[in-house]
Specification:
Layout (H helix, E strand, L loop, with lengths): L1 H20 L2 H10 L12 H15 L4 H15 L3 H16 L8 H14 L4 H14 L12 E3 L5 E3 L8 E6 L8 H10 L5 E6 L4 H8 L4 H6 E5 L18 E5 L5 E5 L1
Parallel strand pairs: 3-4, 4-5
Antiparallel strand pairs: 1-2, 3-6, 6-7
């Protein structure tokens, strides 16, 4: 009995050692070979398909970027044989790789997928138009790049340029002027950043002096004293030519040199 137990332990150790030798690229290759993503026929239902897709994206994020990009293109080559399959996978790549809530968010990989999907043009006109819009705005807010120096105005008509904030870390909060619940973000971020040496600037992306007055009437004195409430009279922000408005509210942290330090959605 003791010999048998020792044998089981040795087998378990061997299996563990073997599994630890399997690198992520090998796992991804094995996973790929075990599923045909070129159609939906190999899945019991749409939930099963999404579960397998989840596993694929998980593995894709573990391998080096060049390996991931090569595999992603192979995935799309395979899926392109079946328009329905391609449409299903395409509808999932965006939330898996681009959604702020996704544990698999990977903008580098998302860009590869986005370029290829726009090139393939398998998706329908409406989705293709949306993806092109995302492509157009992805280059607007880039960590490490200078913030766009737009003109802002407060309720009194005092003008500011974002370059005026140079010399101090600045948090830009982009808000929808027609979204009352968005005002809660001012309170939440005051709690998070109010005690730090950070300038707090709220920008109503579709605002006006009237909007600022209306917003101010619903805010506490603490909020009004710490946040600079502004709007953009040139409308560059509202039209999406300056900042990425695919998700609002959003926050952009600038460093002392007015360089984009971090993005929050």
């Amino acid at each position: 009995m003791k010999v048998f137990c020792v044998w089981l332990v040795m087998v378990a150790v061997s299996l563990t050692a073997f599994s630890s030798c399997v690198n992520p690229a090998q796992e991804l290759s094995a996973y790929w070979n075990g599923h045909d993503f070129g159609s939906l026929d190999g899945f019991d239902d749409i939930d099963a398909a999404e579960e397998k897709f989840d596993g694929y994206i998980d593995l894709l994020n573990r391998v080096p970027a060049d390996v991931a990009s090569e595999n992603l293109r192979a995935f799309l080559d395979s899926a392109a044989r079946d328009t329905v399959a391609y449409m299903v996978w395409a509808s999932w790549f965006e939330p898996y790789l681009h959604s702020p809530e996704s544990p698999y968010r990977n903008d580098e990989l998302f860009s590869v997928w986005l370029d290829r999907t726009l090139e393939d043009k398998v998706v329908d006109g409406h989705m293709l138009e949306r993806l092109q819009q995302i492509k157009d705005v992805m280059g607007l807010n880039v960590i490490g790049q200078p913030a766009a120096d737009v003109l802002l105005t407060d309720v009194e008509g005092v003008e500011y340029r974002i370059s005026d904030f140079k010399g101090q870390r600045t948090l830009l909060m982009l808000l929808d002027a027609n979204c009352p619940s968005c005002l809660d973000y001012l309170t939440e971020n005051l709690k998070e950043y109010g005690r730090q040496d950070i300038r707090l600037v709220a920008i109503l992306v579709n605002g006006s002096p009237m909007h600022i007055r209306n917003v101010s009437s619903h805010l506490s004195d603490d909020i009004i004293s710490r946040w600079l409430l502004t709007w953009c009279p040139g409308r560059e922000i509202e039209e999406g030519r300056i900042y990425d408005l695919t998700m609002v509210p959003s926050r952009i942290m600038l460093d002392h040199k007015n360089t984009i330090e971090k993005l929050y959605y």
